[in-house]
Amino acid sequence: KAGVTQTPRYLIKTRGQQVTLSCSPISGHRSVSWYQQTPGQGLQFLFEYFSETQRNKGNFPGRFSGRQFSNSRSEMNVSTLELGDSALYLCASSLGWDQPQHFGDGTRLSIL
Amino acid sequence: KNEVEQSPQNLTAQEGEFITINCSYSVGISALHWLQQHPGGGIVSLFMLSSGKKKHGRLIATINIQEKHSSLHITASHPRDSAVYICAVGGRGAQKLVFGQGTRLTINP
Q1: Closest residue of chain B to A32, computed from CA coordinates
Q2: Are B34 and B87 in contact (CB under 8 A)?
Q3: Rounded distance, CA B86 to CA B75, Å?
Q4: Least packed by Cβ within 10 Å: which of A4, A7, A92, A101?
Q5: Which pLDDT score is estimated for B94?
Q6: Sign of the CA dihedral A7, A63, A60, A82?
Q7: Which residue among B48, B86, B93 sits closest to A43, beta carbon to beta carbon?
Q8: Which residues of A touch B88 (CB under 8 A)?
Q9: Which of B41, B48, B101 sits opposite A42 (nearest CB)?
Q10: How do residues A33-84 score in pLDDT, each as one tens digit?
Q11: Are B30 and B91 in contact (CB under 8 A)?
């Protein structure tokens, strides 16, 4: 069974640009969560989607947005990139809120 | 004060030693997760527990809901156990996890 797939693995952008990251969950998993990991702040929750609906949102500015498609694949978008957005972005999928999460390998985003 | 506190932040031990990593939390939770992150970033879920104790191979996780405390134990530690171990808590009806700062474990041969 394929795991959680995130694309791209690495990305370099400049300030002011926007970026879209993709996450394909494990087949059958309808819950997809996104996290940001930085050396200073550690792991922080961005948002969670379940059956195409955003169910929870973390404390991030509106520049961070996401969506989930009918096949459970999810994308997150960051607009007007800032240097502080440089981070490892992780996606995780699960069968439901009371089930373990399975993480992808992440997308490492660098902002120049 | 962070909602989830781990100790120690760094731990170096010799191969074969018994390892304990602690996690304390201050919020109500429905489940606590122990995660392992190797260099390069990939995260593996080790345990998800809401009460008692779970065991998988050489790893054991316990939780005391009344004391809001969990421990992760590694028996007969091995250099391949070297990684960052992260405690995270989740509330009911949500996958919104709150994470500890992680414990960097190094096992020397």
Answers
A1: B95
A2: yes
A3: 18
A4: A7
A5: 63
A6: positive
A7: B86
A8: 43
A9: B101
A10: 999 999 989 999 999 999 999 988 999 999 999 999 999 999 999 999 999 9
A11: yes
